[in-house]
Specification:
2 copies of one chain form a homodimer.
Chain A: E1 9-10, H1 29-36, E2 40-44, E3 47-50, H2 52-71, E4 75-76, E5 82-84, H3 86-91, H4 93-96, E6 103-105, E7 111-114, H5 119-129, E8 138-147, E9 162-172, H6 175-195, E10 200-204, E11 215-221, E12 227-232, E13 238-240, E14 261-264, H7 271-281, E15 293-301, E16 307-315, H8 322-329, E17 333-336, H9 339-344, H10 355-360, E18 364-367, E19 376-380, E20 386-392, E21 401-402, E22 421-436, H11 438-443, E23 446-448, E24 454-456, E25 458-465, H12 466-476, E26 478-479, E27 482-483, E28 494-498, H13 503-518, E29 523-526, H14 532-542, E30 546-550, E31 558-563, E32 569-573, H15 577-586
Parallel strand pairs in A: 1-29, 4-8, 16-18, 18-21, 28-29, 28-30
Antiparallel strand pairs in A: 2-3, 5-7, 6-7, 8-9, 9-25, 10-11, 11-22, 12-13, 12-22, 14-20, 15-16, 15-17, 19-20, 22-25, 23-24, 26-27, 30-31, 31-32
Chain lengths: 587, 587
């Protein structure tokens, strides 16, 4: 970021007012601090303005992202935010986005939208320019303002409605080429987040509404994060909850298993009441919720097909995680059964559903991967007030398939077999996708192959939140006094404070500011008339990594160099101050 | 603009395809060439995408604007484009903008708009942060994407619907302070446009819908420009047509003027038919259109008042220029009379209107500044088929006022009395305004003055078209072969072409590219397999200022250095090639 030599930023004229109190609408630390420290201001719900200090952080992040994208060979372009409807109609996303995009009409009544992501337009663009396999691969990117009409914009910059992303798109003729483009991005993202000083994990992810196959998310570890993920300390495995694959236990022998028996269980429509009944009624058996088979009824509709009633059987000690269920059936839709559905299917007895009832009603019966052949279950007998005991999978019922829909819990075995999972929270800061040919199919993006025949192109899509990153870093790098910026993104290298009214000290501070500036450091110069106490508090709130105080020590020939992160303060002789400060900044 | 040492831009992989033919929708040279040369692509009407070369020019212009804004002491911030309705409701512009803004609603039904300019939000922002006269003056700016729903987007980037502007706003407590902030901008704009190599004029302007007083436009001289301006070669005077002030001739004696006589003139509803009648009917008189007084009827409505019928009397050899009329009455609205209006006012006889009829109908009668006391006119007698001859201004009728509404013509005397005006066309590239207290009044932006009493702030608003400038420069700097970029904004310093298949030449060119890059030059390296002819054509179309050819001369130990602007080509020994090229680039 270019500074102008000779134009030192003085707090006496800087457009900055710090606030003593937290803003009323702020819940998370980064939001509170960025507003209190005068980095950002709210303009509308989920829409923020960048004030001078905030903009400097934002631009430094942008520059780092740009450098690393250029280094991997990606080419920067810039597409508009105001987009026509047609390409999104072609891909089907005009409808799919629902209320999540801002839609508008121009004065001629043409439908337009504010772009939330640009797969369609990049696909169209490449189709317009390129025609031969020799033109590929190509990776294009932009750093651009995006819009999403979030239902609940929250946490300041963490979930906004207008925000800046780096989005890039790779175009290859082969799957191996796509793998390579994907790997280039993965490595570039690691370099970017490392340079930004962010603590993050890479988690396996499902692809969400974007379609496609391989996909990973970069999550900044953060208590206030909206995304829950799991990881295994022993093995380093980490995944989005939606992407966790349940380890399948071995099948059990069931030759000596007793035959299933239907019992009158009375009013036992819940797992708790069923377990209580079993422990009382089944002599000598100790029954737990995990011994029961909970059957949850939903209906699932594949694109262009009818709704199919589906029973999902999971161990009774778990709930169905609807997000995992949705991710498993995508692109099909899933809904809970309505009263009308039950009325239309008398074979389905609410509270007493069993595998057979579902299949008898013409439905599909899917089970959790733990429900392997030979496992024995207490479950519904498809009659009010009745359950069946010792129903053996693979003997007494045959599921139509397996589905990942049960909740994932801390302590569950890691899918890689090397330990157990723990859960944690994070903020999505990057997402890399192998889209495959979804968009190339929609737009018929072909190039002529080496043999003269058309080859369908395969694509990747890679997002990185640039404006969000300002808040993510603030979230990870602050203390109770204020922000603590890493050097790479701090608005200024040095915060120079005059804390001595003596004429010589003031003149000396001025000279120091000029010399630091001339040495190429970015200096924020607190030349205000305020008291030292007010200035020190502001310096802590604003969070520059190095604070230099021209204070009481001036008379004895020293200035104080403070490290914002460690709190360490060192008296440095004025004579060697420039060199000492440069050393502190350059580390 | 940062280049990455070691990452040389190669045309073999650059996302660039030049086109042989002009795009069908392009009319002006800059539009044709920027599309043909692969700098931009159209995404929707008036909405463009920047490809790699175009983006580089755009960023260089942005950087120059930023440098000069910082140098004048302005502070950069960044506001959103997606804006709430309320502030624009407060200023009255939510309604005033009419169809010219993009409006939308969010998922909760809140009205929002895409910002066309940000006076309201900057005013609010300063009100939120500042409270004392000691805080001022301050100048804030942003370089930001703006939206206008133009009725006829045209000429590529010259009149787009999504575009980037630098807009700045000054806040002062005194008029003298505002003058100073205005002068700072005027000087900065001159530096910016000089650095960009643009030929421009500064013209006096009316303030348009922005309100306020002093205002000047920076127009790039350009045949395809939409703005007509006038200038006086002798004096250097230049003005927007709307801002031209008609020199007032001296009053004439009328003691010996004959009394007015009403004549039956038959079917003479137009000036032409009236002049023909007069030359035939008035013995010995030679009558010209300029001897007749044309009365045009409009109605004018001041904000919050009723429509007032208004007659405008101008010499019959001129038309009313509606834009000048609108500018004169602003902020009042003006419309032509409807049939209903005539029906309701029988004193107004179409084709035969005279000054008295207008006033008899209760209307206001305003005249062109040339209609001074003592001038004699042939004009309508307010009866069908009748005109009056020798009607003397100030004797036979007394106008209610003077108005600038007549068209300005080449050959008119310059307002400064030093010659005559000529007309020319230009593209608006900058506009500086003294807004005064219009927005401060709307938002009650006060600061506490030195005496403890509130002082209303006075503001300036300053716009500069950043994305438009790419097209303006292309429009002024091209020839029949392609673009001819000035060095300050060219995408690359040097276009290095391999035009020799010899292995040694190819290797030599590669080494030359690396050495030029290492020397800090930005190199576009044409390493494609295409023929020399194709490459030379592309080099001319793309328009880098210096083209270096590794061609036939290689065997004799020379490369060719071509100047794109002059066409001059020089054979340079390979040994000193780097130094010679650097000298050519650095000028």
């Amino acid at each position: 970021m270019a500074t102008l030599p000779g134009v030192i930023t003085r707090m006496s004229t800087l457009f900055l007012r710090t606030l003593r109190d937290d803003p009323a609408d702020a819940e998370v630390p980064s939001h509170k601090l960025l507003v209190r420290a005068g980095y950002i201001r709210r303009t509308a719900p989920g829409v923020y303005s960048w004030l001078p200090l905030g903009l400097r952080v934002f631009r430094k992040i942008e520059d780092i992202v740009r450098e690393e994208m250029n280094a991997l060979g990606a080419q920067e372009i810039l597409l508009p935010a105001l987009l026509p409807r047609e390409p999104y109609e072609t891909s089907g996303r005009w409808t799919e986005y629902g209320d999540n995009v801002f839609r508008l009409q121009d004065r001629k009544g043409n439908d337009m939208m504010l772009g939330p992501t640009h797969e369609e337009l990049f696909t169209q663009l490449v189709k317009g320019e390129y025609s031969s396999y020799k033109d590929l691969p190509v990776i294009l990117y932009q750093i651009q303002t995006k819009y999403r009409d979030e239902e609940r914009p929250r946490a300041g910059l963490l979930r906004g409605r207008e925000f800046v992303m780096k989005d890039s798109y790779s175009f290859d003729t082969t799957d191996a080429g796509l793998d390579h483009s994907y790997d280039l991005h993965r490595a570039a993202y690691q370099r970017i987040f490392d340079r930004l000083g962010v603590q993050y994990v890479i988690v396996a992810a499902t692809s969400g509404a974007m379609g496609g196959s391989a996909s990973e998310e970069f999550l900044a570890e953060c208590e206030v994060g909206e995304d829950t993920f799991v990881r295994c300390v022993e093995s380093g495995y980490a995944a989005n909850v939606e992407a966790v694959i349940t380890p399948v236990p071995a099948e059990l022998p069931y030759d000596d298993a007793p035959a299933p028996v239907v019992h009158e269980t009375g009013q036992t429509p819940t797992i708790d009441t069923l377990v209580a009944w079993a422990n009382q009624a089944l002599d000598g058996r100790s029954v737990e919720a995990a011994d029961t088979l909970k059957n949850v009824l939903v209906k699932i509709r594949k694109p262009g097909e009818d709704w199919v009633i589906t029973g999902i059987g999971i161990p009774g000690d778990r709930e169905v995680d609807f997000k995992r269920l949705e991710a498993s059936v995508e692109p099909a839709e899933v809904e809970l059964l309505t009263d009308d559905d039950f009325a239309a299917n008398p074979a389905l007895v609410r509270g007493y559903i069993g595998p057979k009832g579902v299949q008898a009603a013409g439905g599909t019966y899917l089970v959790d991967p733990r429900v392997v052949t030979g496992t024995r279950w207490i479950t519904g007998a498809d009659e009010a007030g009745k359950h069946v005991v010792d129903l053996v999978a693979g003997r007494d019922f045959t599921p139509d398939g397996v589905i990942e829909a049960a909740q994932v819990r801390a302590g569950d075995p890691s899918p890689d077999g090397q330990g157990v999972l723990e859960t944690a929270r994070g903020i999505e800061i990057g997402h890399i996708f192998q889209l495959g040919r979804k968009y190339a199919d929609a737009f018929e993006l072909d190039v002529l192959g080496e043999n003269g025949k058309p080859v369908r192109v395969t694509m990747g899509s890679y997002g990185l939140g640039v404006s969000r990153m300002v808040a993510v870093i603030a979230e990870q790098r602050h203390d109770d006094k204020g922000l603590v910026w890493p050097r790479e993104v701090a608005p200024f290298d040095v915060h120079l404070v005059i804390a001595n009214k003596d004429q010589a000290a003031v003149a000396g501070a001025q000279q120091l500011a000029e010399e630091l500036d001339a040495a190429g450091l970015q200096v924020l110069f607190d030349d205000r008339k305020a008291s030292p106490g007010v200035k020190f508090k502001d310096a802590e709130l604003l969070g520059m990594p190095t604070v230099v105080v021209v204070g009481r020590g001036w008379a004895e020939g020293t200035v104080e160099v403070r490290d914002r992160a460690t709190g360490e303060a060192t008296a440095v002789p004025i004579d060697g101050a420039i060199e000492a400060i440069i050393a502190a900044v350059r580390g």
